[in-house]
Write a structure and sequence with these properties.
By secondary structure, this protein is α+β, with helices and mostly antiparallel strands. The protein folds into 3 domains: about 170 residues, no CATH class; about 50 residues, SH3 type barrels; about 80 residues, Alpha-Beta Plaits (2-Layer Sandwich), CATH 3.30.70.100. Helices cover about 60% and strands about 15% of the residues. It is built from 10 helices and 10 strands. It has a 5-stranded antiparallel β-sheet with strand order 6-5-4-3-7. The protein has a 3-stranded antiparallel β-sheet with strand order 8-10-9. A two-stranded antiparallel ribbon has the order 1-2.
Length: about 350
């Protein structure tokens, strides 16, 4: 009786064929499931013990991309042995092409992005660095998905070459119409790879200055010292002379001061040595020179040059303040006064 039921046909296949298909599908599904749960988990635990991060990444991305493809492979192999009508067979083949393309793109994208992140974030994994990488990742995703979808459409029988030829003609017109956008995009690549500045750098562009907040595909945003946000197109930045103070190893400082004309020659000779001693005893500085430079309108002028080791502006101002206070104190000890704008009027009294 049971043997007769198995020989019964339904939609062109015997019940026995359906039973074999079901058994094969369940067995294949369980094999993939337990492989994922047991084998991959063990491999994951072993990978955690190694210093190499790539094996952890490879196992994780395999679980997300290869395992789903294996599940579909079990389904495809199970059902392909059945006699199917043309529409059903075509649907399964189309579904297979879509599944393989989508997960293939995901796997390839993950590898490429992992490679970029490993190289770009090798020494510095700060949020600023990660933010700078987002634009490149977006561009890579657009390119890979576009190529992958074209490949999929071609495999599904669409006339991709004809469509691409039409897009090529219209693409030329579109390129002319969007020259500014493309220019900003290429400028973004120049900023990303050449690194004239990065997020967090303090830069000056013309008479505008501030800290770089975000580097986008089209624009770069800078937070100015007065609080407002400055938005530059990437092309403007790559075509401009940029002064990057974040990368300054040391700051050259020039300042001057004047003393009264009543200061004696002996006192004037002492002042350069006093200034030199003050700067040399101040941390994170390097003395260059101090000279009695000129006779001013109402003062005897001195010019001082020294270096601050570092780019921090607040640090520079703290050092300059300390030097100024020490200078006032030391000049008071030798009875030297700072000059201020004065005029002396000489009146000649003539007797009639």
């Amino acid at each position: 009786m049971f043997a007769d039921i198995l020989k019964e046909e339904f939609l062109g296949n015997t019940c026995q064929s359906y039973l074999y298909t079901l058994v094969f599908f369940i067995c294949g599904f369980l094999i993939v499931f337990f492989t994922k749960k047991i084998v991959m988990e063990r491999m994951k635990n072993l990978a955690k013990k190694t210093a190499i991060k790539f094996d952890d990444f490879l196992i994780e991305i395999s679980k997300k991309t290869i395992v789903p493809v294996l599940y579909y492979g079990v389904f495809y192999i199970s059902i392909i042995n059945l006699t199917l009508n043309k529409s059903m067979a075509k649907t399964i083949n189309v579904l297979g092409t879509v599944v393989l393309t989508i997960y293939g793109i995901k796997f390839l994208l993950a590898l490429i992005i992992y490679g970029f992140e490993s190289l770009y974030l090798k020494k510095d994994k700060s949020e600023a660095k990660k933010e700078g990488l987002r634009g490149i990742k977006t561009f890579i995703k657009i390119i890979i998905w576009s190529i992958g979808l074209i490949f999929m459409m071609d495999n599904l029988g669409f006339e991709v070459k004809t469509a691409l030829a039409g897009l090529g003609i219209s693409g030329i017109a579109l390129a002319f119409a969007s020259q500014a956008v493309l220019g900003d995009l290429f400028s973004y690549f120049a900023i990303f790879f050449d690194k004239p500045f990065e997020i967090g750098d303090f830069i000056i562009v013309g008479d505008l200055l501030g800290v770089v907040e975000k580097i986008g595909i089209k624009t770069t945003r800078i937070s100015s010292l007065s609080g407002e946000q400055l938005v530059f197109s990437n092309t403007d930045l790559t075509n401009s002379r940029i002064r990057n103070y974040k990368r300054m190893q040391k700051r050259r400082v020039v300042f001057s001061f004047g003393v009264l004309y009543q200061t004696t020659s002996k006192q004037l000779k002492e002042i350069p040595g006093i200034v030199k001693n003050i700067i040399q005893n101040t941390e994170n500085t390097a003395f260059d020179r101090a000279h009695f430079s000129s006779f001013g309108a109402s003062s005897l002028d001195f010019e001082v040059v020294y270096y601050v080791m570092g780019s921090d502006y607040n640090k520079y101002m703290d050092i300059q303040q300390a030097i100024n206070l020490d200078l006032v104190e030391e000049l008071e000890k030798i009875n030297v006064e700072f000059a201020y704008p004065t005029q002396t009027l000489h009146v000649n009294m003539e007797k009639n």
